[in-house]
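name: query_chain
kind: protein
chains: 1
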Amino acid sequence: MSTIPSRPEEAINWVQAHITPWTDNAVLLNLDPATIGELSALASAAANARTAKINAKTAYRNAVATFDDAVASMRSLASGQVSIIRSTAKNAEDPEAIYTAAVVPPPADRTATPAPGTPTMFKHSLSIGGDLTVRFACPNPARVGAVTYRVDRRVGGTGQPFVPFVTLKDRVLVDSGIPLGTTEVAYRITPQTSTKDGGLAQFAIQFGAGNQSTLVEQAPSGVEAKKAS
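structure:
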């Protein structure tokens, strides 16, 4: 470990604290008074440079704050002028002439919010008690917002109608009310936002002996598209 501190501020303080005892005891310590005088001058120069550094940092922080405030005030006032220009253009017979004269672009057309995606990747499980759980994914485009999932159910074969069943907030469907002896129950899931519907997905669960069940994905018309156990 070095006797003289490595941190600049501490090193300056250490050297300055030793100038007087080294000067007073130069003969005893076998030190050259001229060299100690040179060291004292260097310590004073370092201390002055430290003060200048601190002052420069303070001035820099103040300058940055002044700059940021000036830019914020400028932008705020300019934004107010742009708002007046846009309001003027909105009520003008020739809005384009207003924007051209102001050298300000007209507001960009807002991109319509996209519709939700289509449910996919269905996985199901059937409990001993007969409760059916179906989990699924639904990749939704960006900016879709909150999505709910309307579920319609059909008990029985293709000759039976789909009826409203439940609306889900999450991508998990639990059906605890499948009538005993049902051989097939089908579901249609439609993702929805407050303004748009996503792609409709349809699948059926077919029940066999020994508590066996098979998930069959279908086209909305009822035509079987893909089968998975």
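note: The helical segments are 8-24, 26-29, 33-90, 95-102.
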